[in-house]
């Protein structure tokens, strides 16, 4: 189960269009057991669409997503983009986290003592106990994000996907998040979608650069020429990890 | 006031009051889901397209309730498909069905022989003309709607809060959204009979908005929506009686005034 390069999900030749606009063109990718994969690329480049196709929330026009571990497929943890998350809903923190305990395939749901226990446990771990009764509409960005992570983790996932987890949160929350993810990655594979790789640069094992097409898929060393091709303009690559891997100056003409 | 007290002794007023309680109850529960899911425009599309069924029923001479229900259910199923497969936002389709429904309805009403076209009762209804039979239908359907929502409450909340997460949890999202849309259609058609198309929209929206201004929990919102719905219905009924104005528009304006007052009170208390 822990073989480093044992494939967990194989994504082949994915094409997807919204109306006439091609969003993804022949994208192929592999997620391994124990992986820490970052899917990067410019805004509007199809990263989130690719993620939703991998999760099975969207059907591709063509191509295939094959899960080699059926158990993992049924135990996906998912943290959506919290910056665009609907906040006006009248629910409190613990009610949102409790949704992670909904039982699969059932119309009639019952809450057990074990559900209560697991939710309390995860609220404690993520430092959310004090705000358990707070309405989600009154949370800060960082707090809402931790709530969504708690909701994903209380499902006891075999794999965790996060969409733009560091957009618009403060530096402290970013650091706390990267620590949580690093710890989690000891047990389960993690896939993050982000337009800003810097915070994760020292932790991720693989990077996939997507802008309609897949421009790069490999280990953490990024090539500025590939990035320039993917983003369509010169890109400054700055890795905050230790050691600093790529630091290069470009002309922005 | 004495004339209102006298009116209370008549069947038509008792029916109106019973129908008001049903309307307040349905709108508090179903309306809250619609408002928090941002489906107000969609429910507007469903209620206006139901008019096509009403008009057709008049022309062909079958039960208008059945006609409206058939049209509303068909339209809501079309829109549900669009939401569940969300590739394109359904707002253009809603606008189209809205206009088509009203047009088809008006054409049928005009074509009906010996029928003087008067659209006011459809748009604003007349709660004072509800028959005992209509009232019994209302009670039956209200109970059905409430039982289904109570039984499926948690998964319905999960789907309306975040359908993608619910889908990854393995919940039958398509079924749940369809159930919610069907219940909304039934509610809308029940209430068109009592209060008309425009007032349905107002009642589905105003009491939940008052609830949302007061409470931050879903149950609290529904309770306050019910209380304010009753206040709006009874207050509007009483006012229309006193001022000798049509009930529907007076109920709508009573609701809007109450919403404004609650919002103002919230602003004043939060700034001090």
Write up what this structure looks like.
The complex is a heterodimer of chains A (253) and B (272). Chain A is an alpha/beta fold and 253 residues long. Chain A has a six-stranded mixed beta sheet with strand order 5-6-7-3-8-9, sandwiched between helices. The longest helix of chain A has 14 residues, at 171-184. Helices cover 27% and strands 25% of the residues of chain A. By secondary structure, chain B is mainly α. Chain B has a single domain (2-267), classed as ABC transporter involved in vitamin B12 uptake, BtuC, CATH 1.10.3470. Chain B contains twelve helices and no strands. In chain B, helix 11 packs across helix 12 (247-271). Chain B is globular and about 55 Å long. Chain B starts with a helix and ends with a helix. The model of chain B has no long low-confidence stretch (mean pLDDT 88). At the A-B interface, loops of A face helix 8, helix 9, helix 10 and helix 11 of B.
């Amino acid at each position: 189960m822990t073989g480093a390069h044992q494939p967990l999900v194989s994504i082949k030749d994915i094409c997807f269009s919204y109306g006439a606009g091609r969003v993804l063109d022949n994208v192929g990718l592999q997620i391994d057991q124990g992986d820490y994969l970052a899917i990067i690329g410019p805004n509007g480049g199809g990263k989130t669409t690719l993620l939703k196709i991998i999760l099975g929330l969207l059907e591709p026009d063509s191509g295939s997503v094959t899960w080699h571990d059926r158990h993992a497929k049924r135990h996906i943890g998912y943290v959506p983009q919290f910056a665009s998350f609907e906040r006006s809903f009248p629910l409190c923190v613990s009610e949102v986290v409790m949704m992670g305990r909904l039982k699969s395939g059932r119309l009639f749901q019952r809450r057990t003592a074990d559900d209560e226990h697991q939710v309390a446990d995860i609220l404690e771990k993520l430092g959310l106990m004090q705000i358990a009764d707070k309405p989600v509409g009154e949370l800060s960005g960082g707090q809402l994000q931790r709530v969504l992570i708690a909701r994903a983790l209380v499902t006891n996932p075999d794999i965790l996907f996060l969409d733009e987890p560091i957009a618009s949160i403060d530096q402290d929350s970013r650091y706390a998040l990267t620590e949580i993810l690093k710890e989690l990655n000891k047990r389960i594979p993690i896939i993050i979608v982000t337009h800003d790789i810097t915070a994760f640069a020292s932790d991720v094992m693989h990077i996939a650069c997507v802008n309609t097409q897949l421009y790069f898929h490999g280990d953490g060393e990024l090539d500025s020429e590939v990035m320039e091709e993917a983003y369509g303009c010169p890109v400054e690559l700055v890795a905050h990890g230790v050691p600093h891997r790529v630091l290069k100056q470009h002309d922005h003409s | 006031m004495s004339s209102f007290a006298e009116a209370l002794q008549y069947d038509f007023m008792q029916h109106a009051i019973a129908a008001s309680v049903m309307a307040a109850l349905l709108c508090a529960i179903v309306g809250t889901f619609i408002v928090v899911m941002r489906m107000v425009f969609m429910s507007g599309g469903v209620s206006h397209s139901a008019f096509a069924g009403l008009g057709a029923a008049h022309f062909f001479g079958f039960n208008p309730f059945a006609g409206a229900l058939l049209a509303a259910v068909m339209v809501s199923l079309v829109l549900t498909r669009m939401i569940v497969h969300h590739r394109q936002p359904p707002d253009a389709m809603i606008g189209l069905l809205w206009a088509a429904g009203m047009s088809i309805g008006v054409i049928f009403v005009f074509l009906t022989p010996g029928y003087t076209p008067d659209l006011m009762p459809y748009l604003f209804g007349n709660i004072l003309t509800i028959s005992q039979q209509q009232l019994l239908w209302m009670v039956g359907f209200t109970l059905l709607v409430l039982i289904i929502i109570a039984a499926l409450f948690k998964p319905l909340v999960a789907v309306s809060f975040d359908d993608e997460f619910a889908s990854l949890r393995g919940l039958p999202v398509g079924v749940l959204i369809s159930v919610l849309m069907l219940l909304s259609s039934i509610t809308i058609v029940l209430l068109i009979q009592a209060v008309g198309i425009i007032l349905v929209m107002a009642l589905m929206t105003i009491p939940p908005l008052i609830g949302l201004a007061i409470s931050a929990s879903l149950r609290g919102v529904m309770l306050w929506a019910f209380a304010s719905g009753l206040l709006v219905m009874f207050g509007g009924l009483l006012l229309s009686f006193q001022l000798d104005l049509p009930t529907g528009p007076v109920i709508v304006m009573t609701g809007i005034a109450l919403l404004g007052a609650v919002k103002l009170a919230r602003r004043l208390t939060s700034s001090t």
